[in-house]
UniProtKB/TrEMBL annotation:
The lineage of its organism: Bacteria, Bacillati, Actinomycetota, Actinomycetes, Micrococcales. Keywords: Membrane, Transmembrane, Transmembrane helix. It holds the Pfam family DUF6350. InterPro entries: DUF6350. Coiled coil: none annotated. This is Uncharacterized protein. The chain crosses the membrane at residues 7-34, 81-100, 112-136, 148-168, 189-218, 238-261, 298-316, 336-355, 375-393.
Length: 413
């Protein structure tokens, strides 16, 4: 495979990723255009709506100016003035990262990995620019600089992670490995254990949160269906609404993680959903939000034990890789520093996810939806860091003593 072929194949994959992202909203909207509106409305309206949803999913801000008739129907305070939607539908971003990682991994298998990666990212950026230019209307207008940069950055993160992952399996990362090996052994041990433990702790908290969201959806199924009936969106409108909610599921998972850590989330200014209790007013008309807890939970504080237990177990497991036969056991200060660093890594990761998952979901009080990223990151660092320090200092029950060599009986014989 030559350089040109690698670039063309990578660019084609970028085109397919954009087509999938836009098509998720465009296909049901086109069906809605044909069935509910009888092809009477210009299809470009639905095209722009699909592009707007795709841009919003990639973190692009949308400035909305509602029609006076819609303002009267909604009755939301502040909806008569232009407002900005800033909440990202993380499902779109997650899809772009995963598909971009696949593109990068394919490029890494060729001798021209950076040519393929560059071609894919450049093509994606060009398409994002074109889509941003075609999406603006008087009612909804995306931020053009963000429309060019943010979708491209999200996809580029996936592509680069795929390329680097493939490079680490080959010889391209030899210089980085040699540079890492020049660090003092103590620094290498702390950095490796903290990165593994912090990443594992953050991933485990998110995994537990995903299970919690799944259980909440099952247990509140009747409530969600009742809200669908209240909306009365029809079959096709219900499909569109469901796809929008599926794109919002990753946000709910991150919000559940923020709830487990302690700060919880806000669904409007002056509202709170946390282990201490829930204080909600009117919420956006999305049926999936019917899974939010109500009132005070009798055992809600037990959720705070989840990040603590995960931090302890992550440190206890990763500590086994830290110990080597040719190295002196780490000292107590080194273990404490490693535990603190583990908490910092987990806090940074969950703080970034919390920042990406929240934003403005409407006018008035809905300008504040989601968790406080600084508070989520800080409390995660404290909870996981303290628990990780305890996990690193706890002796492993199956750890053998090094005082007696294994070949001692043979020596006596």
């Amino acid at each position: 495979m030559n350089r040109t072929t690698t670039a063309l194949l990578a660019a084609l994959e970028a085109v397919l990723v954009v087509a999938i992202g836009v098509g998720i909203a465009l296909v049901p909207l086109t069906v809605l255009w044909a069935t509910q509106f009888g092809l009477a409305i210009d299809w470009v309206v639905f095209w722009r709506a699909a592009v707007d949803v795709w841009l919003l999913g990639n973190g692009v801000d949308l400035t909305v100016q509602l029609d006076p008739a819609v303002v009267t129907t909604l009755g939301l305070p502040g909806s008569e003035a232009p407002f900005t939607l800033t909440i990202a539908l993380l499902g779109y971003g997650l899809l772009a990262v995963l598909l971009g990682r696949r593109t990068g991994a394919r490029a890494a298998e060729t001798p021209y990995r950076w040519v393929g990666a560059g071609a894919a990212i450049a093509c994606y950026g060009l398409l994002a620019t074109v889509l941003s230019l075609t999406a603006g209307t008087d009612a909804v207008r995306p931020s053009l600089p963000q429309g060019i940069l943010l979708p491209t950055a999200v996809y580029a993160a996936g592509v680069l992670s795929g390329v680097l992952s493939g490079a680490f399996r080959g010889q391209a990362a030899g210089a980085l490995v040699r540079r890492y090996r020049t660090l003092p052994s103590v620094a290498r041990g702390i950095a490796a254990t903290a990165l593994r433990g912090g990443t594992a702790a953050a991933a485990a908290i998110v995994a537990v949160s995903a299970v919690a969201v799944f259980v909440l959806i099952l247990s509140n199924y009747a409530t969600v269906i009742g809200l669908y009936e209240t909306v009365q969106s029809g079959l096709t409108g219900g499909i569109v609404l469901t796809l929008l909610e599926l794109a919002l599921i990753p946000n709910l998972v991150v919000w559940a993680a923020a709830w487990l850590v302690g700060p919880g989330i806000a669904v409007g200014v002056g509202t709170s959903v946390s282990p201490v209790g829930t204080a909600l007013g009117s919420v956006p008309g999305l049926p999936i939000l019917g899974v939010l807890p109500h009132g005070t939970l009798a055992f809600g504080f037990l959720g705070l034990l989840v990040p603590v237990l995960i931090g302890f177990l992550a440190a206890a497991v990763t500590r086994q890789r830290q110990a080597r036969a040719d190295m002196a056991p780490p000292t107590v200060p080194q273990q404490l520093v490693t535990g603190l660093a583990t908490g910092i890594v987990a806090g940074i990761l969950l703080g970034l996810l919390a920042w990406w998952s929240g934003g403005a979901m409407g006018p008035g009080r809905l300008v504040e939806v989601g968790p406080d990223p600084l508070l989520v990151g800080l409390l995660t660092a404290i909870e996981v860091g303290v628990a990780a320090g305890a996990g690193l200092l706890t002796p492993h029950p199956f750890q053998r003593s090094r005082a007696t060599p294994k070949n001692e009986p043979a020596a006596k014989r």
